[in-house]
Design a protein that fits this description.
The protein is α+β, with helices and mostly antiparallel strands. It has 3 helices and 8 strands; from the N terminus they run βααββββββαβ.
């Protein structure tokens, strides 16, 4: 990232050290990658009071404790899932899903993200800084 920013973005690392968000990113079209980058670039300098719909959604129910980044590209509702932490002014991207009929695809999105959140909290080295 160029210069100091309000937020530091991190990405979950698999047990083998692979950045799961980078893997997702590389599998996307150029337009989806550009939309993802634009969303993160916008959010990294915004105070939390500006992290609201349509850009960000606080999740509830089985997804409580998680937050989604919201953007639509290539006629798909993309939903990178993250949480605030593990340190102050950081957020960690945990997984990426799409939204269809008000549900995440894959259906295991919340469970996977919550499991990964617990891993990052107990093992902060399992999150690497996102490289813009």
């Amino acid at each position: 990232m160029n210069g100091p920013h309000l937020w530091t973005f991190k990405c979950f690392l698999s047990e083998g050290g692979k950045n799961v968000i980078a893997e997702w990113y590389e599998a996307q079209s150029a337009t989806v990658r550009a939309a993802f980058d634009t969303a993160l670039e916008y959010l990294r300098d915004q105070p939390p009071k500006n992290w609201v719909r349509p850009f960000v959604g606080t999740l509830r129910g089985e997804c409580a404790g998680l937050v989604e980044i919201r953007f639509t590209e290539d006629r798909v509702r993309h939903r990178p899932i993250r949480f605030y932490g593990p340190q102050r002014m950081e957020f960690t991207l945990l997984t990426c899903a799409v939204e269809k009929n008000r549900k995440f695809v894959p259906p295991s999105t919340c469970k996977v993200a919550l499991d990964r959140k617990e891993i990052v909290i107990s093992q902060p080295e399992r999150a690497a800084e996102y490289d813009f």
